[in-house]
Structures are given as C-alpha cells and as structure tokens.
Specification:
This is Bifunctional protein FolD. By secondary structure, the chain is of the alpha/beta class. The chain contains eleven helices and eleven strands. Helices cover about 40% and strands about 15% of the residues. The strands form three sheets. Strands 1-11-8-7-5-6 form a six-stranded parallel beta sheet. β2, α2 and β3 form a beta-alpha-beta unit. α2 crosses α10. About 45% of the residues are buried. About 5% of the residues have low confidence. The structure holds NADPH dihydro-nicotinamide-adenine-dinucleotide phosphate.
Length: about 300
C-alpha cells in the first residue's frame, strides 16, 4: 500500500509543451536551410469530434511555425477523388506531412487511402512501409500516440532496459506499435487482448503497464504491481452524477494505492499525441532531405535534432 501523496502524477501537458518547444526550435533551424515544414490535414465529412481534432492539430502547427494546409472535403467525396488529392500532395514538394483524419466515411476503403500516402510524408506512421520499418527497428515515422507514451516513460524512468512491460490492447494504432517501441527500448514485452487468459495475473507482473483498451476504469489496483508505472491511453466518455466526464482505462483512484507513477485522464497521453504529430512533421521534412541525412543520422543533422 502506497501513500497516494508519494505517487508521481505524470504531467502530459508539461511534457507536450517541452516537445513543442523543441519542435519550434527545430522548425526555426530548418528555415535557416530554406526548408519550411508544411503539414496537409485532410478531413472528409462533418464528424464533430474529427473537426475538433483537426482544429487542434492546425492550431498546434501554427504555434510551432509549421505551415498547415487544410483540405475539407464533403461527406460524398469518392475514394477516387480522395486518392487524387493524396497523389497531388505526395507530388507537391512544398508539403512534408500528410494526415488523413480517421474515421473515413464507410464508402471509402481506409486502408487503401493510408497505403496511398508517400511513406516519407506519412506523419501518422500507419503506412505498411513504416509499420514494417518499426518492427525491423529502422528509423521511420512512428505512430504518434505510442511515441508520446515512450516520451512519458523515458521522462519518468530514464532507461527502460530489461523492464517488463505489459501492453493491454493490440490495435494497429496503439497496442501493436506500442509493443514494438517498448521492444526496441529493450523491454520484455507482453501484449494482452480480449482473448488473453489470466490477463490480470500477467498484468500484475509488469514494471510498466500501458492500457489501450477503450473500457472505462477496467484496470484497478488488483491488476497492478506495487511500484509499477502506468500509462493510461484510454479516453472514455461516461455519465456520472448527471454529468459527462472523461475517464481512462485505469481506475485512477484505486491505482494510486499501488503505483509509483501514473498518467491522468485527461492531461496525460492526450496532449502528447498532437505534440508528436508536430515532431513527426519535422522528422518527415528532414527525412525528405538526403543532404541532411546521408553523412549522419537524421537525429545528428546539424542544429536539427529534437529529443
Ligand atoms: P481498439 O478498440 O482498436 O482496440 C482495443 C483493444 O483492447 C483490442 O486489441 C481488444 O482486444 C482489447 N481489449 C478489449 N477488451 C479487452 C479485455 N477485456 N481485456 C484485454 N484486452 C481487451 O482501441 P484503440 O487501440 O484505438 O484505443 C484504445 C483506447 O485508447 C480508446 O479508449 C481510445 O479512445 C484511446 N485512444 C487515445 C488516444 C490518445 O491520444 N490519448 C489515441 C488513440 C486511442 P481484441 O484485439 O482481442 O479485440
């Protein structure tokens, strides 16, 4: 049993602000090379949540000096029209990153659209070239949410070598890339999913737990090892006392009695996702400049590294 006051509440807003500061510096450095990072954001239809996400992404881009170009398409846009737009953005040297806001309307094949994006401009890291590159440990664009979780883990624990990490959830967007990133950081990784047997017991062995399930407060203290570090990716909207509120996949109050550090919801992983999108736009700009990446790794390119 912990005293809740000894638990570190991992501040995702502060961590995201640090990443965005680094991005701002890197964008300024790129501009000295006459490189002007630009992000194209494509929204099909009028889904209110997607509109909010797109607005936030555009705002963050502007704050960091990244040029953003919005393409708002009507809900009856055909797949062929969307693919034409992406082909144009792929060919446009003034565009460095392409983000297609998901979900797409049902008549459009999401996978075909994601595979049409130039892997070097794929700032969401969903193209199979980048997914494969991640699993091979190559220096590719990686999905924003798991990359944001890795930042928070390194900030909290430093070196992750040899830690036992349990990822709860195996989606292509969060769980699988999360597991690949943890493996790359030399963790021993267990991935749990809806068919896992003894999930709670397996989870209770973990030094690090990343919860990405989409079930409100599913993991309480009985799932967690004393002293573990918990990253809660879940964003669940629930009704409580006649009010709507956001909660994670972890029962935060219960977890406080055992963990050493935990992310809150909201204010944990959420802010990191957009910050990492901006970081990926800078990385994409660098990857597209062979002169900046041939003689040294891109992280070592002059003046342009961001942590
Ligand atoms: P998905 O619905 O795509 O995946 C959920 C995963 O959880 C599946 O792999 C599923 O297993 C697994 N699962 C479901 N029930 C159980 C269970 N009882 N025990 C163990 N595993 C289970 O969700 P996402 O990965 O897209 O998102 C997960 C959560 O993260 C959501 O709340 C989402 O809103 C949030 N999210 C937050 C982001 C952020 O920026 N903070 C970004 C993206 C997502 P199976 O594969 O067997 O079905």
């Amino acid at each position: 049993m912990n005293s809740p006051s000894s638990v570190t509440i991992i501040d995702g807003k502060a961590a995201a602000a640090r990443v965005l500061n680094d991005v701002r510096d890197a964008v300024s450095a790129l501009k000295e090379y006459d490189l002007h990072p630009a992000l194209a954001v494509v929204l099909v239809g009028h889904d209110p949540a997607s509109q909010v996400y797109v607005r936030n992404k555009v705002l963050r881009a502007e704050e960091t000096g990244i040029r953003s170009v919005e393409h708002k398409l009507t809900v009856d846009t055909t797949e062929a029209e969307l693919l034409d737009l992406i082909a144009g953005l792929n060919a446009d040297p003034a565009i460095n990153g392409i983000l297609v806001q998901l979900p797409l309307p049902a008549h459009i094949d999401e996978n075909r659209v994601l595979q049409a994006i130039d892997p070097l401009k794929d700032v969401d890291g969903f193209h199979s070239e980048n997914v494969g590159g991640l699993s091979q440990g190559r220096d590719v664009l990686t999905p924003c949410t798991p990359s944001g979780c890795m930042h928070l883990l390194h900030d909290t624990l430093g070196d992750l070598n040899g830690k036992h990490a349990v990822v709860v959830g195996r989606s292509n967007i969060v769980g699988k890339p999360m597991a690949a990133l943890l493996l790359q950081a030399n963790c021993t990784v267990t991935v749990l999913h809806s068919r896992s047997v003894n999930a709670r017991e397996l989870c209770r062995q973990a030094d690090i737990v990343v919860a990405a399930v989409g079930r409100p407060r599913m993991l309480d203290a009985s799932w967690l090892k004393p002293g573990s570090v918990v990253i809660d990716v879940g964003i669940n909207r629930i009704d409580e006392g006649g009010k709507t509120r956001l909660v994670g996949d972890v029962d935060f109050d219960s977890a406080l009695s055992v963990v050493s550090a935990i992310t809150p919801v909201p204010g944990g992983v959420g802010p990191m996702t957009i910050a990492l999108l901006m970081k990926n736009t800078v990385s994409a700009t660098q990857l597209q400049q062979p002169a900046l990446s041939t003689h040294s790794t891109r992280a070592e390119a002059p003046c342009l590294s961001i942590s």
